[in-house]
Write a structure and sequence with these properties.
globular; about 290 residues; disordered C terminus; mainly alpha
C-alpha cells in the first residue's frame, strides 16, 4: 500500500516535467540506478550469483515489460485524456488475475472476485467524472489498455523472480534493462531530453527517488510475501493517492462522488485482503 501511494505521486511529476514523456521515464530510472546499485552491491552478491544466471531471461523480461509500460502509458496520455488513460491502465489486476489463474495456477475464489469487482467499480467512479470517449482518442485508449497488459506482465514476472532474487538486485538489474531500452526510444522520437532549469532536474530527482526507488522497491519486496493477485489489486490504491495528491498540490477539485469512489476502492481492497487471508487459514487447517 505504501508503494502504491508513492507511485501515485508519479503523475504529478510527469505532468510538470520539462522533458518529453519517454525521456521523463528514462530519467526516472537513470537517476534511481546509482541508489539501486549501491543498495544491491551492499548485499551478498555471491549468494545470489547462481540465481542471476538462472533467471536472467526473467530479469530482462521484467525490465522490458516495465520500460514498455512507462513508454506506452506516456504516449497514451498525449493522445487521450488522463482520466481515460488512468482508468484503462488500472485494469491491470484483471489481466494479473487471469494470468495467475491460467499460468501460475493460483486459486481465485468468488470472494476475491467480488472484492476485485468492487475495487474496479470504485476506481471507475473515482476517475469517471471526466471520462469521455471520442474518435480521436481511440488510439490513446488502445495504448492505455496495452499498458495494462505490460504492467500485468511486469507484476507477474517480478513475483516469479522474488522467490530467488533479493529486492535490491531485482530493482538494479531490471532498472538497467529499462533505461537501456527507453533512451533510444526517446532519442528516436526527438523528444526534449534535458531539463532547462534546476527545478526540472529536481522534479526528475523526486520522481526517481519517490516513485522508483521507494515505490517500486516496496512493491517488489511485498510481492515476495503476498499472492500475485492480491498485490495487483492493492495497487488500485494508486488512483486514490493520485487524486489526493492532485487535490493537495495542484488544487484539482475532488467531488463527493469521487470521494465515494475512493472509499469504494479501499473497501474492495479490504474485501480482497480478507478473502486472501481466509483462504490461507483454510489451506493451513486442511494441511494440518
Amino acid at each position: 500500500m505504501l508503494g502504491a501511494i508513492a507511485i501515485g505521486s508519479s503523475a504529478l511529476f510527469v505532468k510538470v516535467s520539462e522533458t518529453g514523456p519517454v525521456a521523463t521515464a528514462f530519467w526516472r530510472i537513470c537517476i534511481a540506478l546509482p541508489f539501486l546499485w549501491t543498495w544491491s552491491l551492499a548485499g551478498s552478491r555471491a549468494r545470489h550469483a547462481a540465481s542471476y544466471r538462472a533467471q536472467w531471461r526473467l530479469l530482462v523480461a521484467a525490465g522490458a515489460f516495465f520500460a514498455a509500460d512507462l513508454a506506452v502509458w506516456h504516449w497514451s496520455i498525449l493522445l487521450t485524456s488522463i482520466a481515460n488513460s488512468t482508468l484503462l491502465v488500472n485494469l491491470a489486476p484483471v489481466f494479473v488475475t487471469l494470468a495467475a489463474w491460467l499460468w501460475l495456477r493460483e486459486s481465485v475464489s468468488s470472494r476475491f472476485m467480488g472484492g476485485l469487482a468492487l475495487a474496479v467499480a470504485g476506481m471507475c467512479v473515482l476517475i469517471g467524472g471526466d471520462f469521455a470517449v471520442t474518435s480521436k482518442a481511440v488510439l490513446g485508449d488502445a495504448l492505455a489498455l496495452v499498458t495494462a497488459v505490460f504492467y500485468a506482465g511486469y507484476q507477474i514476472t517480478v513475483t516469479r523472480l522474488r522467490s530467488s532474487i533479493a529486492t535490491s538486485a531485482l530493482m538494479a538489474w531490471t532498472g538497467l534493462v529499462s533505461a537501456a531500452l527507453l533512451l533510444p526510444v526517446a532519442l528516436l522520437a526527438h523528444e526534449q531530453l534535458l531539463p532547462v532549469s534546476s527545478g526540472g532536474w529536481l522534479t526528475l530527482a523526486a520522481l526517481a527517488l519517490i516513485s522508483q526507488v521507494a515505490g517500486q522497491s516496496l512493491i517488489a519486496y511485498a510481492m515476495a510475501h503476498l499472492p500475485t493477485t492480491f498485490s495487483s489489486v492493492g495497487l488500485l490504491m494508486q488512483p486514490v493517492a493520485a487524486a489526493i495528491f492532485a487535490w493537495a498540490w495542484l488544487g484539482e477539485s475532488v467531488s463527493l462522488v469521487q470521494m465515494a469512489g475512493g472509499a469504494t476502492v479501499l473497501l474492495g481492497i479490504a474485501f480482497v485482503h480478507r478473502a486472501a487471508y481466509t483462504e490461507t487459514e483454510e489451506h493451513d487447517e486442511k494441511h494440518f
